From TrEMBL:
This is Anti-sigma factor antagonist. Pfam families: STAS. Residues 20-107 form the STAS domain. Transmembrane segments: none annotated.
């Protein structure tokens, strides 16, 4: 798993790429804490590896629970890179409306650059 921080204008994005397991959330929280408090914070999570994790009821619940806890801290959570199986799983569990989604990291980066500067 690789975590990188990017700031563009008034927006801070913490990008998580690779396999995200339960132990990874401590590192994700640490990376989120490095953003300035006045910036809009976003957490972009690569979900291309989600189908490789043993998604038992408890592990998917833990994953979503961690994301919801992060969202409660006024961090916008965006999931990207979901394959058809992962998208279907989120839809079946009615989780698809809880988080924003994008097809690719490049799509997210382009959208961030296209946003107007907040006054």
């Amino acid at each position: 798993m690789e975590i990188t921080n990017h700031t563009h204008r008034n927006q801070h994005a913490t990008i998580v790429q690779g396999l995200v397991n339960e132990q990874a959330f401590a590192a994700i929280r640490q990376a989120l804490s490095t953003a300035l408090p006045l910036q809009d914070q976003q957490l972009w999570i690569d979900c291309s590896h989600v189908d490789r994790v043993h998604l038992t009821n408890s592990s998917i619940c833990s994953f979503v629970s961690e994301l919801l806890q992060i969202r409660k801290q006024n961090v916008k959570v965006v999931l990207y890179g979901m394959n058809a199986t992962t998208e279907r799983l989120f839809r079946l569990l009615q989780l698809d409306t809880l988080f924003d989604k994008a097809r690719t990291l490049e799509e997210l980066q382009a959208a961030a650059k296209a946003q107007p500067i907040a006054a």
